[in-house]
Amino acid sequence: MTRTLAATLLLSTALCLPAAAAAKPSAREAKAFIAEVEENYEQLWEEAARIAWLKATYINFDSNWLEAKINAELTEIAVEYANRAKDFDDTRVSDDVRRKLNILKQSITLPAPTRDGAASELAAITSRLDSAYSTGKIDFEDEVVPQNQTEILMRQLRDPAKLEEVWTKWRGNSVQMKQDYVDMVEIANAGAKELGYDDLGQMWRSNYDMDPDAFAEETDRLWGQVEPLYTNLQCHVKYRLNEEYGDEVVPLDQPIRADLLGNMWAQSWGSIYDLVAPPTGDSESINLDEILVAADYTPLKITQTAESFFTSLGFDPLPDTFYERSQITKPEGREVVCHASAWNLDNVDDIRIKMCTEVNADDFRTMHHELGHNFYQRAYNKQPMLFRGDPNDGFHEAIGDMITLSITPEYLQQIGLVDEVPSADGDLALLMNEALEGVAFLPFGLLVDKWRWQVFSGELTPETYNDGWWALREQYQGIRPPNERPADAFDPGAKYHIPGNTPYMRYFLARVLQYQFYKAACDQIGWEGPLHRCSFYGAEEVGEKFNAMLEKGNSQPWQDSLELFTGTREMDASALVEYYRPLMEWLEAENEGRQCGW
Ligand code: X8Z
Ligand code: ZN
């Protein structure tokens, strides 16, 4: 079927060419072209999604083969469509058609050049890279440890030598990815250039309803808003780690060793909360890890709890097929991609998650994140095919994260997970807990694509990939590797989104948007207390307004969608800064006289 479909597309393209060359194509032809694309994509995306699901939940030779084949076809068609869309650059068309033409030109994550075989080569490489990550394993203490368990070790271990061992061994797995990555960059860059971009980084940055250079400046502006908060948090954490591990492991005049922060990539630091906790006064601090276990939560119960937050806002419950078809826990006896993701298999309501859920606070949060994707996908499923998406990829990542900010002690009490709500004395503890996720993440969220932008532009070469990575890690995060990195190291490959080729600036944007959405929701319910205590659980009026934004999908510029829900047209981190103000004041006092910065 797919073969026939591809043949049809090529044939119709060939028939179009003489007309396009002879005269400027008409608005009517543009409309007909879009109708053809949307009809074809409706079938093709579903087929590709079902194959991708099969591969992600059952990695083997054949599923890799199928995935590479369909991805090659998809890339070829997408590039073909992008080129045909360019033919209408000078045609006067309606706003909707223009937006769809732009989507076709800008939204290919990895374009291939049109030369024979390029799309297949690219697809074979990307399938290999993705599988190499997910099936990676290390030997540790006489056991073979799979990828998702290495993450758990980094959360739980406290012995610096063991942490260094796990950290280093996991990075041994990505050495094999380097050549594939280099080849992939070359092919995809050539594809971007053929489509008229300087390089793939510029193509990625062009997808934000603004000039690509202005977008890069926008990310720096947002970082500038939050940098003082991050610098203060980093400083406090460095001093507490120094108290725990001593001067040799944590010298105060150096960036922090990356393996000591309770996370494989030092991107969120919630697991070392106990080491950095502020005083809680008389109130008991809330430890969600312990609470979930004590309350006999299961992965399924975590899923249902997250779902019920959304239904409390007036969203319809998830369909039965969600529970029948999702991968909620890691299956036995086969290889899967454990990195969490949310899917819509038929672009309508065959929505699912794929996770290897464990009962802990991290996965409780991730579950809300993933369901945010699913509820968003279902909200925009009545849009035309090309508008079924978000207008700015930070939106998709921010929906569930906005909900997680509503997981306040009052909310946990409402759902029976805690008996008593801590007094205001406990606020600093709560804010610190949240900051180890929401603030610690910010520079990481920013730098992953800063690195890729440098790779795609050629500013970094394969010889300097790794040093360039660590230069950014030091510059933005103030961290350093625990040992000298070998010449063949490819440390970026140890992070899923690099071999998985998922753009990452979206997560940085989401960390900003999440607080903007949250503050707007709190304003809508008339909340007057400190921002961090607001929960909009059960507020159907918020759900209604939120849904009005979500159901627009990608049919309008993100500025319009943002304005619809928040009343402002700019991304702005001041809600985040307001949320953490009490913590910032405390951190500044703590850090007085300390050697901050790096
Ligand atoms: O990849 C994810 C989600 C799936 S979209 C689990 N996140 C980023 C990561 O894990 O690195 C969520 C936070 C950032
Ligand atoms: Zn996500």
Automatic annotation (TrEMBL):
Zn(2+) 2 binds at residues 369, 373, 397. GO terms for cellular component: membrane. One of its GO terms (molecular function) is metallopeptidase activity. The keyword Disulfide bond applies. InterPro entries: Peptidase_M2. Pfam families: Peptidase_M2. Keywords: Disulfide bond, Glycoprotein, Metal-binding, Signal, Zinc. Chloride binds at residues 208, 506. One of its GO terms (biological process) is proteolysis. The keyword Iron-sulfur does not apply. Residues 1-21 form the signal peptide. PROSITE patterns: PEPTIDASE_M2. It comes from the Bacteria. Disulfide bonds join 338-356, 522-534. Gene3D superfamilies: 1.10.1370.30. The active site is at 370 (proton acceptor 2), 370 (proton acceptor 1), 497 (proton donor 2), 497 (proton donor 1). Zn(2+) 1 binds at residues 369, 373, 397. This is Peptidase M2 family protein. It comes from Parvularcula marina.
